[in-house]
Amino acid sequence: MTDAVSPVPTQGPTTRSSVIRVGTATIVSAICGYAVLYLAARDLEPAGFSVFAVFWGAFGLLAGAANGLLQESTREVREVQLAPLNSAEPHTNPLRIALLVSVVAAVAVVGTAPLWSGHVFSESRWLSVALLAAGIAGFCVHATLLGVLAGVDRWGQYGTLIVGDATGRVVVALATFLIGWGLVGYLWATVAGSMAWLVLLLASPATRTAARLTTPGTVGSFLRGASHSIAAAGASAILVMGFPVLLKATSVDLGAAGGVVILAVTLTRAPLLVPLTAMQGNLIAHFVDQRDARLRALVMPAVIVCGLGALAVLVAGLAGPWLLRFAFGPQYEAGGGLLAWFTAAAIAIALLTLTGAATVAAALHRAYAAGWIGATLASALLLLLPLSLEDRTIVALMCGPIVGIVVHLVALRRVPAA
Q1: What string of H, E and C letters represents the secondary structure of the chain?
Q2: Which of 12, 59, 209, 257 is 20 to 30 A off residue 386, Cα-Cα?
Q3: Residue ranges of domains in the chain
Q4: Tell me: the pLDDT tens digits for 347-401?
């Protein structure tokens, strides 16, 4: 692999190869994620697993928000590859901005912790805060480096970074399981991969070359664009990784039933949302390249998501209860109908993820944020309905995303083709 940044491919075998590379990395990442959940669920009782799941969700919420840096850096770098930077224009380096943001994020977590940590973390409160701050600081740089690599089609390094993050988590989780470290070990495992970007930078000359790339504009202009993406990504993270936190905030006491619901929701959505999250760089690059047909470019990914989702609903309904009991023990009991509905809800969030990526690629930052924030607010309000925990979870996750999808599609329809 040479240090030179390769030209950006548009369509054809190279693009298909990038999807295969990232898809392979995503499969490995998904297996590692399932492994961490499996080890934690087997090692902890449902009530203890719900405590772990809330921390897992809290980190996922902040990491999801940091993915706004991935989206903005992908778009900015991709635009530079399509229209080279004028040396006379002001320019900035996304990785340097990410380092600044990482420090601010860590300070914000620690500084605000007295206001919220007591309500969120029922055990190991201050260790959880410290790990959360350190983990999100590392992930800010991790996400930005992923975006830069996606922008210049360094899909091999992109996939390696995804796998490195996931592998770090599962190694610590496995060690925790074997030595009996308990809940604390799984808290460490959650953030264990957040420094994988540093290893890749040290090991890969091509990654270091990509990391030195600059984009047009100032630090302020980059942050203004990224702020909308971060706000929207944060809202999306509440529905995806941070859902246990949202569920806890709208419930008096989750208890063992909450642990079962959280595990069921996490497992049923993972087959769709883990690949989509990992392939954000591919999707945004694809939609930037297809700027002259933004809505048509959505059709094929949406068809694929719906087809795979329908198959997942069938599997969840028929085999899900047995798989849940077999893998995690008899204390994790959920009906086939419930698991099928949870999987159907994952399709709605997956489609919202697709429309969001297309909106980011079109630089419609306000519409992107409005769609995700609207979906999250709608879901939060629906979780307050006087229904059982299972029923209000289904209604919130099925109906909330529709609000965001409509906002994104209306915005995409109004913007003129490039």
Answers
A1: CCCCCCCCCCCCHHHHHHHHHHHHHHHHHHHHHHHHHHHHHHHCCHHHHHHHHHHHHHHHHHHHHHHHHHHHHHHHHHHHHHCCCCCCCCEECHHHHHHHHHHHHHHHHHHHHHHHHHHHCCCCHHHHHHHHHHHHHHHHHHHHHHHHHHHCCCHHHHHHHHHHHHHHHHHHHHHHHHHCCCHHHHHHHHHCCCCHHHHHHHHCHHHHHHHCCCEECCHHHHHHHHHHHHHHHHHHHHHCCCHHHHHHHCCCCCHHHHHHHHHHHHHHHHHHHHHHHHCHHHHHHHHHHCHHHCCHHHHHHHHHHHHHHHHHHHHHHHHHHHHHHHHHCCCCCCCHHHHHHHHHHHHHHHHHHHHHHHHHHCCCHHHHHHHHHHHHHHHHHHCCCCCCHHHHHHHHHHHHHHHHHHHHHHHHHHCCCC
A2: 59
A3: 13-414
A4: 999 999 999 889 988 878 788 888 988 998 999 899 888 888 888 889 999 999 9
